[in-house]
Amino acid sequence: MEDTGHYLQRMRARAPLVQNITNNVAMNMMANVQIAAGASPAMADAAEEVVEFTALADALTVNIGTADSLKAMSMRLAGAAMNGHGRPWVFDPVGVGATQFRNDLCRDLLALCPTVVRGNASEILTLAGRGKGARGVDAVDSVASAEAAARELAGRTGHIVVATGPVDYVTDGTRALWVANGDPMMAKITVSGCSLNGVIAAFLVEQPPLEATAAALAYYGLAGERAAAVCAGPGTFQPAFLDALYALTPEDVTQGARIEAA
Amino acid sequence: MEDTGHYLQRMRARAPLVQNITNNVAMNMMANVQIAAGASPAMADAAEEVVEFTALADALTVNIGTADSLKAMSMRLAGAAMNGHGRPWVFDPVGVGATQFRNDLCRDLLALCPTVVRGNASEILTLAGRGKGARGVDAVDSVASAEAAARELAGRTGHIVVATGPVDYVTDGTRALWVANGDPMMAKITVSGCSLNGVIAAFLVEQPPLEATAAALAYYGLAGERAAAVCAGPGTFQPAFLDALYALTPEDVTQGARIEAA
Amino acid sequence: MEDTGHYLQRMRARAPLVQNITNNVAMNMMANVQIAAGASPAMADAAEEVVEFTALADALTVNIGTADSLKAMSMRLAGAAMNGHGRPWVFDPVGVGATQFRNDLCRDLLALCPTVVRGNASEILTLAGRGKGARGVDAVDSVASAEAAARELAGRTGHIVVATGPVDYVTDGTRALWVANGDPMMAKITVSGCSLNGVIAAFLVEQPPLEATAAALAYYGLAGERAAAVCAGPGTFQPAFLDALYALTPEDVTQGARIEAA
């Protein structure tokens, strides 16, 4: 693929408006992450306006973390509307397998053809019908153990599937990439996965989805590495992470990205 | 007007209880901002209790950022109740123009006579019926281009109207003030505008509204200047901003305020 | 009681999954606090799935801060379900006394037998039927003035009752402990009380509730002391507090805990 930094550069030049229907834990951090990266977030998520709002959005994220029936309706409507506009959206099946409500909602959202499905290894295994059950919202499986399921799910649905973990795995069902950027400290704060969705969505706008997703993962992980090097714990990690997302240049990303064909 | 710091001093002496019906992105930061400034926030926003709760509140803020029909009902009820108590409230028409739902809600809230309407230039232009359309929740117009609309809207409705941006414009329809405090870094974090509403509301309690609003804007902007001088990016800006809101003295505000008659 | 640090050590060894039905202000900070402490938070709070989700949870917290009728239903259902599982849950009656809606919900939740009730002095007095009325969500009474009410409430209901303040008071109706750890800066940020609930819940898992609660209070207060010693204000306090929760060892807690029989 092209120099990784080019994907960041083009995203920043566009400063895409990303609509986010996400969980209430993630909203603030997710918005700050997107602004720091160079995108423009909007958290409009009410069923009353969500379809109309998609007309303004360059991309969408959908995250079921704290969904109820009303938010679930917003998600289905907005995902379908983005398909109608021919614009990308990212789906995060948080905690799928934990309850029937989550399973039913994820089945519908998957059927609505998101551009990218991103989850931890356990969530991807569960979506692919191979899960052994999750433990709440945390992964209990390794990314390696989810690679075949991710590839099969991507091949069957036509979506990009991403399993994130110490090394991320991205596949379109035919090709696959590993992205090795990141730091264990990223798992010591909440919503680092949720916030990533917003960065992926911003990178997807008018860029090839497999490569754009891998570039977003590398950029995000690199910011995590930088922040971990200067923080004193998970509390000071968070501001340092936002600073790093803001400060990283396309050249930094090209030099620091660790992406390999899988 | 009087020394700007006096408005801060009296607000802190009263430590007013401010009720906030705000968006889910802003709730945490907004509460922290109000505590750091010296007020006492309460985020009671359910239609089930919002009217009864206004009996305890010295001031109210209403922000439509992530409103749905139920929250919209809370907003209408609480605004009307504050009028009944003769106590001030601040209305923030986030993203008006983006959807019909927002437009309808803003029409009602404007008709309920908020003490202060605060928005970015695009939102004020749209409220005044002169908007060319927003881009989601971000301004695409300059404050200067919104001054006539703000003055006309204030004159017609009797509210204080504030258009915030690099230089803020505050008017009651007859008189007008510019407030030049602030730093571009404030636009690199989410909800800095939303959180400002809570500070304005606290300053409004038993103080003349035009001057109190300008003093709140100067104080808030000055804290942004201080934080920008010591931060390394938008992540470290946020804690530094709260520290500055907490540390600024009335004397600092009197010395640092840049308020001019417009 | 045993060395205080042992309670932290065992909690971390278990890394319990704590389900939280909390207010929208607290969600993010509360999740970060629990991760930093060593627990695994899940914020599943929709009535559609809350009972099914309790099957996965080792402990639960319920906080009425921004409850509406739907969230109130989730709280009643989840509390009852945890009783069915024989697993601990913590109830925080935020702002009880402020509105009839809060009073009605608190009456029900108290009747559902939470393991621990934690509030500020005014909330505990109100729950015990001795309140003189609150001022929104902030305490207007001293912990000392609430001790008799706490002891009586605990004796009558069989719950552990905690009144937090400069010195915390913990009682099961027969025995009582004072915990003197903490720093006034903890009151200068929002949701420090709400976030504490999640730490208490994590400590309660398979540990004796009176001692586990006191140990959680000491650990949490000690982290506040450490953070206050290095911060420059309430903004920088928050990241330093999370760092301290993460860094404190069982030995630190044993040495620093200030727990006394009352």
UniProtKB/TrEMBL annotation, chains A, B, C:
Question: Per the record, what are the reactions this protein catalyses?
Answer: 5-(2-hydroxyethyl)-4-methylthiazole + ATP = 4-methyl-5-(2-phosphooxyethyl)-thiazole + ADP + H(+)
Q: Which cofactor does it need?
A: Mg(2+)
Q: Where does substrate bind?
A: 43
Q: Tell me the pathway.
A: Cofactor biosynthesis; thiamine diphosphate biosynthesis; 4-methyl-5-(2-phosphoethyl)-thiazole from 5-(2-hydroxyethyl)-4-methylthiazole: step 1/1
Reported EC number(s) for this entry are 2.7.1.50
For this entry, the protein name equals: Hydroxyethylthiazole kinase
Q: What function is annotated for this protein?
A: Catalyzes the phosphorylation of the hydroxyl group of 4-methyl-5-beta-hydroxyethylthiazole (THZ).
Q: Which family does it belong to?
A: Belongs to the Thz kinase family.
* Domain of life, per lineage: Bacteria
Q: Which organism is it from?
A: Paenirhodobacter populi
Amino-acid positions noted as binding ATP in the UniProt annotation, renumbered to this chain: 118, 164
What Gene Ontology terms for biological process does this UniProt record contain? thiamine biosynthetic process; thiamine diphosphate biosynthetic process
An example of a GO molecular function for this protein is: ATP binding
Keywords for this protein:
ATP-binding, Kinase, Magnesium, Metal-binding, Nucleotide-binding, Thiamine biosynthesis, Transferase
One Pfam family name from the record? HK
What InterPro entries does this protein's entry cite? Answer: Hyethyz_kinase, Ribokinase-like
Q: Does the keyword Ribonucleoprotein apply?
A: no
Asked whether the keyword Kinase is assigned, the reply is: yes
